[in-house]
């Protein structure tokens, strides 16, 4: 399935464990949309289609979530999902542990654009030391 944001279209899809994804932004959720996505993940036909309607629906799959991957100088991996809030809630609710993702490697300055002053608290001192 082709998918993901415009920026991530050329990036290959991969499956990451839901438990590895950091979600720093508290979501505002539409539970009907989540339930519709849960039905897709469970290979069911959704009772409700959110607007704007998906271009297509592949049973058992959701479009890839864009994930930023930061690898610290010590070799620790951090995976950040800044969007995809509804999809990630749907994976949780459907108890599907592998998330379809598009992973983009980022540098410390790029990560800081998203996390601002919280960056040190989230990824630890290593980031401040670089
Ligand atoms: N029931 C569904 N089955 C499959 N795909 C769906 C379904 N509902 C929505 N989608 C698609 O999932 C993608 C993500 O939807 P959307 O942007 O609304 O949520 P999100 O990115 O997971 O959450 P947020 O935008 O709040 O971070 C869109 O391409 C949308 O068309």
TrEMBL record:
Keywords: Antioxidant, ATP-binding, Disulfide bond, Nucleotide-binding, Oxidoreductase
One Pfam short name: ParB_N
Catalytic activity: S-hydroxy-S-oxy-L-cysteinyl-[peroxiredoxin] + [protein]-dithiol + ATP = S-hydroxy-L-cysteinyl-[peroxiredoxin] + [protein]-disulfide + ADP + phosphate
E.C. no: 1.8.98.2
GO CC terms of this entry: cytoplasm
Keyword NAD: no
Keyword check for Disulfide bond: yes
GO-annotated biological processes: cellular response to oxidative stress
InterPro entries linked to this entry: ParB/Sulfiredoxin_sf, ParB_N, Sulfiredoxin
Name of the featured protein: Sulfiredoxin
Source organism of the structure: Sphaerosporella brunnea
Organism ancestry: Eukaryota, Fungi, Dikarya, Ascomycota, Pezizomycotina
